[in-house]
């Protein structure tokens, strides 16, 4: 069946509205289900976690969509390029060198700053080595990501063998994505960063729509391709660093929500895909946390729940997608 | 007018363009011919600022393509490469509408919509307007890309192998449309063409290249000679006059 342009636009609006309603419902449920004792206290605690989820949802959604646009592909994410495994490595090395007690008692803002700087630095390095040359080959990118990722993982394994077993337990707590122990000041700082970056990116959106057509077409249509790509990648590096440093690695979420948003909305236009992906990410996080608390009694990790449920939805959608 | 001044370009030590100097006058159709690897596509890409030249410079209406802002050039010159694989899923209408981007950014005006409809009508894409590109045949897709370029409404139109994937009917139709763009709309059309006879029948001027160098350029009739075609393609080509046109026959 072929829909006309106005029909498509109508369906997009309806889809986005449904997503917004579903997300609101998940948020409301997350805030109110099973409150025992003081409502004030419960709402305050859960509100803070919810705020962390919202910040992470926007950061992950925007960074993944932009990364896929500038690299012209739909399977790579900043996480696949080794960002979160670098995070794991940094934590492990810090615990090894300084000891678990030093790491956990350091001012969280300082830790946060160091993590952001390391991840942005890595992003800049990756950018220079990949986008400095004229030919950009997605296969080289994937290969590099896989190699870097496994290098980081191997180094992490090596260091963690050398760590005292008790300290290793502390380390594991640091490494699982968690919304329960987010520092208030870090949260505020992250929120400001994410809002500023998203606002900065917003003006680029029409240009990014053209960049998604591929470099030659974009240049032919008068887009300053290099400049747009540079800015988008800088935003990606900071957003990934913020999200990972705030709650830890959530590998699969970005890939999931970026592709789901495109598929559900039936467009690649960033003005639609970005809000859609951000809503989906918040829905996945709030819904996932709810499932985690109510069904598993906190005996699991959020990333496991999100990856499991999200993966099923994703595969189902791929299978159902009509191929003409 | 496109002025190419001693342009050279090398890929990893191999010279693909060797000191090419050429002026393409305003108006009419100019065809670049030559064997595979002669540097036609590279020359077109350099002229359209898709590739930087190693040395030399290209000016379009007096504007140096290497230094003029891309957005300014996009209102004077449009280009279509041979390969147009995209990672995004677009309808024909969405693709053609991108041709208006240099003029109105992301927001299309009523006039833009009219021009999009007009371009789709020219290339008989009306019934396919709301189909996705991946649902079309190669030839239909090719017409959609050329419609986008036409929709850009520039004085200079550079096309790399626009007849790719087109059957005879649509190839003839495409060349007639390009002729119309040159004759009626006064556009300057530059093509890379594989088939010498297409160049002979539809273009005003021919530019012949071999191994990165310019062999000859001039009015079509002067260049369609067995001697020149032999020099360009390294094959004996008999040239016959048929219904007022010069046709090269290499299969002899």
TrEMBL record, chain A:
Primary localization: membrane
Q: Which PANTHER family match?
A: FERRIC ENTEROBACTIN TRANSPORT SYSTEM PERMEASE PROTEIN, PETROBACTIN IMPORT SYSTEM PERMEASE PROTEIN YCLO
Name the protein family.
Answer: Belongs to the binding-protein-dependent transport system permease family. FecCD subfamily.
Q: Report what the protein is called.
A: Iron complex transport system permease protein
Q: Name one GO molecular function term.
A: transmembrane transporter activity
Asked if the record carries the keyword Electron transport, the reply is no
InterPro entries assigned? ABC_BtuC-like, ABC_transptr_permease_BtuC
Q: Which GO terms describe its cellular component?
A: plasma membrane
High-level lineage: Bacteria, Bacillati, Actinomycetota, Actinomycetes, Geodermatophilales
Subcellular location(s) of the protein? Cell membrane
Q: Which UniProt keywords apply?
A: Cell membrane, Membrane, Transmembrane, Transmembrane helix, Transport
User: Could you state one GO biological process linked to this protein?
Assistant: siderophore-iron import into cell
What is the native source organism of this protein?
A: Geodermatophilus dictyosporus
The record lists the membrane-crossing segments as 16-38, 50-70, 82-100, 112-132, 138-159, 186-205, 232-260, 272-292, 298-319
UniProtKB/TrEMBL annotation, chain B:
Q: Name one GO cellular component term.
A: plasma membrane
Return one GO MF term: ATP hydrolysis activity
Subcellular localization is given as:
Cell membrane
Taxonomically, the superkingdom here is Bacteria
RNA-binding as a keyword of this entry, yes or no, is: no
ABC transporter domain ranges (all copies): 2-236
Q: What is its main location?
A: membrane
Give GO terms for biological process. Answer: iron ion transport
One matching Pfam family is ABC_tran
Look up and give the membrane topology term. Answer: Peripheral membrane protein
Cited PROSITE patterns: ABC_TRANSPORTER_2
Q: Which PANTHER family match?
A: IRON(3+)-HYDROXAMATE IMPORT ATP-BINDING PROTEIN FHUC, PETROBACTIN IMPORT ATP-BINDING PROTEIN YCLP
- Name of the protein: Iron complex transport system ATP-binding protein
Protein species of origin: Geodermatophilus dictyosporus
